[in-house]
Amino acid sequence: MIGGIALETIYWYTLLGCAGIAVFLVLFGDIFVFDGPIDPILIVPWLTFTSLFGYLGEHLTELDSIFLLIVSGAISTVLVFLLNFYVRVPMKNAQSSLSASEKTLEGQIAIVVTPIPLQGMGEIQLKSVTGSITRPACFYAPQSTTAKRGEQVLIIEVRDRVCYVTPYEGMLKI
């Protein structure tokens, strides 16, 4: 007992509180981005597992409470590590679409859909196996003529979803 409250009760209310926080994090977890040595999003499952195993240990066995707390904490640490390493990190690093990432567009040849003026933006289209995408585009360096519809351009850089292009003149001839 801690302060006249049974440990089973403490474990139970901690488990319920962590379950509520877990539901909140599932719904709104993308809002929170933590960049530190210990991610608070990992603390919630650790507390949940610790309180679950502590509650079950207190309820089902006659072992010492301190021993149960240490064992449930150790089991929780292993489970949270495995969940983080095998579930959370791969899901965090996975791309959620079939479209090309920004960096893979650089060096690609595209076709002008909306003419690109000397000082302004037009639109280009890239075709690939997964379909075609259109992006806003402007010239990477000052040009003497505009890029007309149907001309080919080379994507030099992509910044803030805008492709910076230069006219593409085909293969170099020697």
Automatic annotation (TrEMBL):
Segments passing through the bilayer: 12-34, 66-87
Domain annotation Membrane protein NfeD2 N-terminal transmembrane: ranges: 6-96
Entry annotated with the keyword Transmembrane helix: yes
Superkingdom classification of source: Bacteria
Coiled coil feature spans: none
Keyword field: Membrane, Transmembrane, Transmembrane helix
Zinc-finger in keyword set: no
The protein's name: Membrane protein NfeD2 N-terminal transmembrane domain-containing protein
